[in-house]
Specification:
Layout lengths: L1 E6 L2 E4 L14 E13 L7 E14 L6 E12 L7
Antiparallel strand pairs: 1-3, 2-3, 3-4, 4-5
Length: 86
Amino acid sequence: MHGRRFRSPTGRQDFDDPNPLFGDKQDSDTYTVDASFLYTLPIEGDRWQLGGNIFFGEIDSDINFHDSDAYRIVGVIRYNFGNMEQ
């Protein structure tokens, strides 16, 4: 089994009232990129798989206090102990 997935959701939040502490509206733009893969290695009856995921996300608010960034890199090696017959 081989698989790939790529997503890039975006969003926007708009608020009617200004924040009472900062005096600005807490409007924000959100950007994310998320990519994953899964690859079955052709050894030992296809029991071994390699996988990975990369994620980046950013929220850009009109109030700098609410800005944020997120990053993730994941690597996976998986072995299937169960019955592989279908």
